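Backbone description:
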Amino acid sequence: MIRALTGFSTRSPWKVIAVWAVLGIFLSVLSQPLVYRVTETQSGAFLPARYDSAAALRVAEEEFGVKPDGNAVTLLVARADGAPLTEADERSIAAVAGQLAGRRVEMPAPKEDEPPAFLNEDHSQTPAVSPAMTAPDRAFGLLTVELTGNSLDPGLQRVYRVFHDRAEEAFEQAGMRTGFTGGLADLTDTADAEKTTQTVVGIAMVGLIVLINILVFRSVLAALVPLLAVVVVGGAAAGTVIGAAMLTGIKLDPSTPSMISVVLIGIGVDYFLFLLFRFREQLRSRPDQPAREAAAQVSARVGTAVTSAALTIVAAFATLAVATFGQFRVLGPAIAVSVLVMLLASLTLMPALLAATGRRMFWPSRALKRQPAEGTAARFGALVARRPLRLVLASVALLGALSAGLAGIRMDFGQGGGNHETPAAATAAEISRALPAGVSDPATVYVTAKDGRALDPERIEALPRALGAVDGVGRIGPTTLNEERTAARFDLYLTPGPQTQQARDLVSGPVRAAVAGAVPAGTEAHVGGTAAVFADISTAVDHDLRIVFPVAAVLIALILLVLLRSLLAPAILMTAVGLGFAATLGASALFFQHLLDEPGVNFVLPLVLFLFVVALGTDYNILISDRIREEMERPGPAREAVARAVRHTAPAIATAGVVLAASFGSLAVNVNPSTRQIGFATALGIMLSAFVLSIVLVPALAALLGRRTWWPLRPGAARGRREAAPRASRPDPDRVSVG
């Protein structure tokens, strides 16, 4: 199958390139505006129905008409001269609020860098504006504004900006100043503040990848073609995932599209680099061979290793389908599908590009006309063959030292505060100085009658009284009944901020305990809100980690067994990547938890690291192991085979590792602390996988074990014995060192 695909692609390269170009560009353009129609911004929507906060969301939607895509913004209004609000001021605020609530906001036309208007969803709407409360010292009043739509959609953010400017101008004419905070305001301010940074980081990442390839291949085409190909394939993969989500009605997590982009740029460039290095090696060793024939041979050989590597990633991420937390359950298959698209491109588009460009791929470099002198890779390969035990001990010592950071590791379930210098953050800080921190994002208790009968308001009042006695509940809002009087709700304004660990502990502990003890007979009560949602997410994630880790490990081990046709080699590789995972997570805890004094490592970090570091790190291990096996098929000492494998493969692994680490490292400057942790930790894990596991530890272990690495088979052993028979004094090939 692999040979058939690569063979067809190298025979008809321009047809394959044209098909990929059309598909990639079409799906990429189409998916940009559609992505916001298939993403779910409410984290609680990903929780199974059995969780308390998920039940609260269901009651809110069914009984109180809360819109799933509703975005509440808190509008602060204060006198421009700083004096306390008077009754006249409050009447003026109410009048302006009424005017704002009666005016429709038209969505502005998209900017030049955004999809055309006909592809965008129209978010024009009349906002709901209602009074919330006045500060105890009358320093300001608060209004609640609701806009519906996907909060990440640039179209809705443009609508919010129009309303923001309109409200600011209206209150300014009344002698008032304004401030905006809350979900949509936070996201919009952060997007504005970080737009330049993200653009610069993206350009820097692309520039770094191009620069690395130029330095390695001394060629402009070899630097640009892989990146352009991966961008086209990435667009096709994203379009495939988004199209599948629209057809099936599945909602994606907002981080999924960006995660797909980072993953595909990294592994796509990696796979192309593996092909380029082997293609160059083939052209050097056989200068008279036609380029298309060389491309076909190389693509078929490398395609086997690339297929196994890609299927390892697919298997690892596909295991997330068994998770209970919907965010994981959607992310895993989405990335798995994307990697399959990249695998198809690796077996078709990339060989076609090699066949179409031929030796011109390496222009203007003249390196094809001569065999390179022994460089760093050759010298290091000889060192691995000469001193394998020392290198094994040094590698294990380094990984063990980094793993020590696992002692006392803590999980942080915070969403991250984003940029603390935005206007929205400043408004939130001003509110928290006069009111409980949870005013802009309260916890909410919903009460429903089990038999569907009308609720007695007097019986319900016992519940808020009990909650008022809970330490940490700063204020309780009035009780509101739905139209049928079969459900009631009231807000809890917590003293700690809704995204803090204290708020999650408060909601999951004392608040829910008080609700359980005071809920009236014949009714049931549920606690919702941000703190409650993330308290339940922490429970779901703990459950999923215990399932996903072993299932993914077993699937990866099975793939390695099939690929390597050995029992010992997969055990070696799995042990190595296990050490790499422990070292990466331990180093992340040391850096973020101890050095930067953050609350802990983000709750998704262990899972993300396990999947990326184990799956992607196994890519490099598969590449070096496949080459070691190939070299051991040849006669001669096993250690010399290891030295040759390191010499030929280490440059590809090192270059690919740096490129992939740079791709993930771009996330390390993200405004969101959790994304920043994921970017830093994943980049570190990939560097450890490439430079410690794949270039040092695995080859050194193979040099120590020799052909016994492939037990119960021993590649090349029989041929080696036949050629060594006339020379009885020749030492055991597995024990010969390279001098």
Summary: The chain is about 60% helix and 10% strand.
